[in-house]
Design a protein that fits this description.
Elements (H helix, E strand, L loop, with lengths): L4 E4 L13 H13 L7 E5 L13 E7 L10 E7 L19 E13 L10 H16 L8 E3 L13 E6 L6 E3 L2 E11 L1 H9 L2 H10 L18 H4 L3 H12 L5 E4 L1 E5 L9 H4 L5 H7 L5 H4 L2 E3 L3 E6 H4 L2 H8 L5 E6 L5 E5 L14 E4 L2 E5 L2 H10 L13 E5 L4 E6 L4
Parallel strand pairs: 5-9, 10-14, 13-19, 15-17
Antiparallel strand pairs: 1-2, 2-3, 3-4, 4-5, 6-7, 7-9, 8-9, 11-13, 12-16, 14-15, 16-17, 18-19
Helix pairs in contact: 3-4
Pfam family, one: SUFU_C
InterPro entries: SUFU-like_domain, SUFU_C, SUFU_C_sf, SUFU_N, Suppressor_of_fused, Suppressor_of_fused_euk
Organism: Hypothenemus hampei (Coffee berry borer)
Length: 419
């Protein structure tokens, strides 16, 4: 736990209590309705508040003992609730002020439900550290967390040997959206998942995986309670989970529109003659803005080139997502972007039906600065879907592995992760 945080339980004498900020009091009031017998729960408190230069954005994290509903397969658990992602004060010290009809702060608070062990006499505090880490991401990036989002963590949430190493987000089953004097606040619950479940949520979507988890009491059940001792994934608990996810993937495609990874591209000659003035008319498209909004400078934005041929390079981790990009996105008329973790390079694969792109059947490869768009026609998408099946078993690949389509002046190479 951060040195700037402390546990509090017993309040000071009433005559020493400062007035509770209105936004905070609104959230406390909601919690008291659920936990009327726990008006003074154990809390993790940031000693040096964020607006005073402290490291932790969450002012408080309350920890409640929830008895569950055992006869409905809802076990006793610890319920953690954050305070600080929404506007608690309304005076601009952390968030831009909003009226009661707007969104309070980032519009949500985090919650987490951890299965209570029989030996537990008090709640573990590591979930508070986890919630502070997620809050820092939100404050630093400006990106909010919503139900059905996934978070790749790549280590046990409690730093143990647990298989629960990633997260999905869902709606808290007890805390409904509430209106505060400073706007609306939703409650987004963290759900611990294992690597296989993360990959399935990336392949298909978070909502589908949450529905499967909800049906399985051993995997969290209807209230999505995280059990750090869970040793079996949904695929081991539910024999037909693979088939269900594959059907959903084929029917719905994937909600994952891009990833960060190691990737690069190079040109193999490019068109001459025609200029690109017609392409500059499309700079306001949603696809274009979704990438350039926080990337290229204005000079780079004007460097649009039609390329005659291209060579794409992905490391194995990124390349293993090519089947998803093609089968789950392009074949469903969508786009998928690989954003380099080093530098500003990006590669966007687009279906012909995607609007507002730079590419065209006559010039399927177009770069704008270090952003490359690649048009994948239907026949090529079908060919790639078959060709990339070998990437389903990446451990069997001999690397580097190059896939080539000479008639399209396109080649893709997969290299080892450490290269």
């Amino acid at each position: 736990m951060n040195e700037a945080a402390t546990l509090t339980h017993h309040p000071p004498p009433l005559n020493m209590l400062p007035p509770t900020p209105a936004g905070l009091e609104a959230l406390y009031s909601l919690c008291r309705k659920i936990y009327p017998n726990q008006v003074n729960p154990l809390q993790v408190t940031a000693l040096l508040k964020y607006w005073l230069g402290g490291p932790d954005p969450l002012d408080y994290i309350s920890m409640y003992a929830n008895p569950g509903i055992p006869n409905e397969n809802v076990p006793p658990h610890w319920h953690y609730i954050s305070f600080g992602l929404s506007d608690l004060h309304g005076d601009g010290r952390v968030h831009d002020p909003s009226g009661p009809d707007g969104v309070s702060g980032f519009g949500f608070e985090l919650t987490f439900r951890l299965k209570r062990e029989t030996s537990d006499t008090s709640p573990p505090t590591w979930p508070a550290t986890l919630m502070q880490s997620l809050a820092k991401y939100v404050f630093q990036s400006g990106n909010t967390l919503c139900a059905n989002d996934h978070v790749s963590w790549h280590c046990a949430l409690d730093n143990s040997e647990s298989r629960i190493q990633h997260m999905l987000m869902t709606v808290d089953p007890q805390l409904s959206a509430t209106q505060t004097p400073f706007g609306t606040v939703n409650f987004v619950q963290i759900v611990g998942i294992c690597t296989e479940e993360l990959k399935a949520s990336q392949q298909w979507n978070g909502a589908g995986i949450l529905d499967i988890l909800k049906r399985l009491p051993e995997a969290g059940g209807s209230w999505h309670i995280t059990d750090m001792r869970r040793g079996e994934s949904i695929f081991e608990l539910e024999p037909y989970a693979h088939e269900e996810i594959e059907r959903g993937f084929e029917l719905d495609g994937s909600n994952l529109s891009g990833v960060s990874g190691r990737c690069s591209w190079s040109e193999q000659g490019y068109f001459s003659g025609k200029d690109c003035k017609d392409l500059n008319l499309r700079l306001e498209s949603p696809l274009h803005q979704s990438f350039i909004g926080n990337s290229l400078d204005s000079a780079e934005l004007l460097r649009i080139r039609k390329l005659d041929g291209i060579h794409l390079i992905f490391n194995l981790e990124a390349g293993s997502l090519l089947p998803l990009a093609i089968r789950g996105r392009v074949k469903h008329g969508r786009h998928f972007t690989f954003k380099s973790v080093i530098g500003e390079t990006a590669i966007t694969l687009v279906a012909r039906s995607v609007t507002g792109t730079l590419v065209h059947p006559d010039y399927p490869y177009v770069s704008q600065g270090c952003w490359l768009q690649v048009l994948i026609p239907d026949d090529l998408a079908q060919d790639m879907a078959v060709t990339f099946q070998v990437l389903a078993s990446p451990e069997a690949l001999s690397l580097p592995k190059t896939f080539s389509w000479p008639d399209r002046k396109l080649s893709i190479t997969i290299v080892a992760d450490k290269v």
